[in-house]
Predict the structure.
Amino acid sequence: MSAAAEVAPPLRPGGHFWRVFLIGGLISYRALFYWITPWQYIPTMLAAPTFQILFFVYLGRAAGVGSTAFFVVGNCIQICSMSGIYGMTMAISNERFFQTLSPILATPSDRLAVFLGRGLPVLISGFQTCCFGFLVSALILGFRPAPAELPQLLLAVLVTSASCTGFGMALGSVGLRVRDVFLIANIAYFAVLLVCGVEVPLHQLPLPLRVLAQILPLTHGIAAGRLLAAGQGGAAPMVDVLLEGLVGICWATAAYLLFRYFERSGRRSGAFDRL
Amino acid sequence: MRGPGLNEALSWPRVVAWGWFYQLKMQAQSGFMLMTAVIQPLIFASIAMADQQAGNHGLPILYYALGAGIMGIWSTVVFGCGGALSWQRHQGTLEPLVMVPAPFVLVLMGITLGTATVGLYSMGATLLWAAVVFRAHVQMADPYLFTLGAVMTVVSLGLLGLVMGSSFVLYRNSNAISNMIEYPVWLVTGLLVPLSLLPGWSHPLAYALAPTWGVEALRSAAFGGQPLPAIGWCLLASLVYLAVGVWLVGVVERRARQTATLNFQ
């Protein structure tokens, strides 16, 4: 083989971005997502959310608040945040934990591709978990969403998974600096249950929590999901879906800015991987 | 002056007591454990209490506060005891612990009881939360039996943790089991949902699990019922867990020594 043949062909403009985004994202997911093996994935990402749905449906029945559909839709959409919050936290801050952050930041790769690429598998995983939750709820609890609104409901789930991924990116970026980001991720995961109207109707919450809910992921997606599952299509749920997407974009932008800020400050202090 | 016989008789309780004390000190400084024992139960208590206020007010706030408190104890047991041996293995301290002359089961018992005791934070936190935030009337009809019930609950859950700790060590992905079994036990033991609302097939499972009797004892003591039968069931469950735990730890220890796999991760 000639030496010339060994030289890689020049990259098409933009080709490098997509390669880092898709292949790099997939590799980082495989390397950094703890729960990827079936022995971890099934109990953690499928069984635990199923029990969560059952628990809150029965709690709702005991308290005499909301319908079964209220809790099914709320929890089925919320469980995508398990992938979004924990998955993204692992995908970004575990680089620091495994001491691989410095080599990655030493490469000339596009930071946006490195950063966003990690989100795609997490988003898909979150969407999968939601769909599984709906399927199990249909089988065990007899949940039946309005068939005509099913495509829009899936769109709401997809957008909510994306916004949770954006939120998780922000937590992951914080993990580049703080010592125990998983503690924050745990608190965030449980706090959204209370604040985002998953288990408690939003109007029951005090005003500060209602305001906080508007800027957190899930709130608008769940509101849209409940309308769509009840067969109330039209503009109202789509406005909620748009708001959910906007919230996700804001969180992802904040996350990227935080990531770049911590990268720059890490370069200055020479402390990328300090634990 | 104590003779050698007394010293020998006290050596086993001493191993458990010191293990309990050091575990309590360590866990009390763990951010994850404090999250599990305080923040998480407060969130669940808030959800249950807010739903109660929005719903039919069928059950008093204190009912939910007590249930959420035991949920916190169960979570600390699931994550703290379920991974106790795996954690020692990860830290490289499992071999020295097995090697020392004290029976390993006593060492492990101190660890699991210490972990369950940390869960008592959650009981205090949810009761305080109910009183301050939800204006609940937190008064125990029988404070002495309530205290006895709380102690028995912690002991029985700690001994259940001994069973879990020794059996989970055989499973490499024990944290995945811990993630999975938190909700089902909360549900079937009637911590927030009355057992009467659950399907009949789940009741035998509930009766085999200590949280069912623990919460029953505390609620009876708080609301003026008869807590002693539930405390008795807690005691019986503790003895069964102890027997199973001692047997399991022996099996695991023997197998690990024979196959030289004690420190495999």
User: Anything to note?
Assistant: The first helix of chain A runs from residue 3 to 6.
